[in-house]
Amino acid sequence: MRRWEGKVALVTGASAGIGEATAVALGRAGMRVVGCARRIERLEGLRARLQGEGIEFMPIQADLRKEAQILEMFDAVRSRWGGVDALVNNAGLGHSAPLIDGATEHWREMLEVNVLALCVCTREAISDMRARGDAGHVVHISSMAAHRVPTGSGVYAATKHAVRALTEGLRQELRALGSSIRITSVSPGFVETEFAALYHKDEAAAAETYGRTKVLEADDVAEAVLFALGMPAHAQIHDILMRPTAQVN
To answer: Does pTM surpass 0.85?
Structure first.
């Protein structure tokens, strides 16, 4: 990770869970970190914590469903630090919204955040990386649902299957350009975050989901991100699939 020291990493959805853990891990690895989320008070708390460790952290409030706010975020990073060297597309969410009777607004939010916002952030970050020496790394935090379809989660799984296709599509585009920018997808199984509470709309159901067996922790996924970034420049880790050891499917 030494070659990343002083470089700029942008982590979306950095106010909690995997995003927060990844922002902390990248900062401790010597990177300057930009964290975006809607909950600015959470980001301000993270900034205070990281400043106490001597880590440079730039919090940005942004609703990734709004392209204008994404563009403003990248402009702010360019103005302060010249652009992005690494992007972690972590922001994502799921709703229990089956095709048979799911709410359209839930489908739309999953598609806008999990797919469209990821595309816009990737486009803007690649522009920065090409301008900063045609090097860098894009990491998508995907899901095991990109590789199977959990019962009742068809639309959520469809968004993560899209991320899987976008990962390979971007790899092909970059290779066609002769670029050295790398792309990685990290697909975790159950991770104890705020995801289940939002998905089930029920704290008890979320606790039951994470209480069946020992599940992954956010720090475990952050370590996978560091592993991919830390590989030598000629080696690209394309896809990381990680489950709790006890997870059945």
So the answer is: yes
